[in-house]
Amino acid sequence: MFTVYAISSKTRRYIYVGLTSDLEERLHRHNSGYEQTTKPYRPFEIIFQRNFPTRVEAREFEKYLKTTRWKREVLGI
């Protein structure tokens, strides 16, 4: 099982979209500063998640979520 997720910084206007097989561990890594991309925007909260049976399906959906269009339509930014 693979999860596509979006997390939002609690202190700044920043949203990160990612893909993982262990959402709890991945969120911990983001909030602990292990990920260079998100380190300056800590802490985070999950604002969206959806599970997929295969990595291929999850990756396809992740690509869609990373578009500006999705962020405008769903998140209003």
UniProtKB/TrEMBL annotation:
Q: InterPro entries attached here?
A: GIY-YIG_endonuc, GIY-YIG_endonuc_sf
Q: Which UniProt keywords apply?
A: Endonuclease, Hydrolase, Nuclease
Superkingdom of source:
Bacteria
The protein's matches in PROSITE patterns, at most eight in alphabetical order, are given as: GIY_YIG
Which residues does the UniProt record annotate as the domain GIY-YIG? 1-75
Which is an annotated Pfam family here?
GIY-YIG
Tell me the GO molecular function terms.
endonuclease activity
Q: Which residues form the signal peptide?
A: none
Would the keyword Hydrolase turn up in this protein's UniProt record? yes
Output this protein's name.
Answer: Putative endonuclease
